[in-house]
């Protein structure tokens, strides 16, 4: 299975199979205790650094900010979608998403 993953417009979009799927300015509830001290940071996506795939999970390395405490940075590879029969399927990113801390191969 091959999938085309790209970051477009200087990090504004994640493109999957030449279709723009995930954009900046989304608010994600992030379960990332290493990122900041908030229990569940409200994380605003500001820039996609890169995109990859881990098994069937599309992951993105994103720069953003916790709007609760103001911490900025890159919390890690965050699942943003899945591949199902080669098609992109959105994850519900307004709920808690778990950064993939290890096992990622890019
Ligand atoms: Zn925070």
Automatic annotation (TrEMBL):
Pfam families on file: DUF8134 (PF26455)
Residue ranges annotated for the DUF8134 domain, each copy included: 1-102
Protein name, per record: DUF8134 domain-containing protein
Protein's organism: Haloferax elongans ATCC BAA-1513
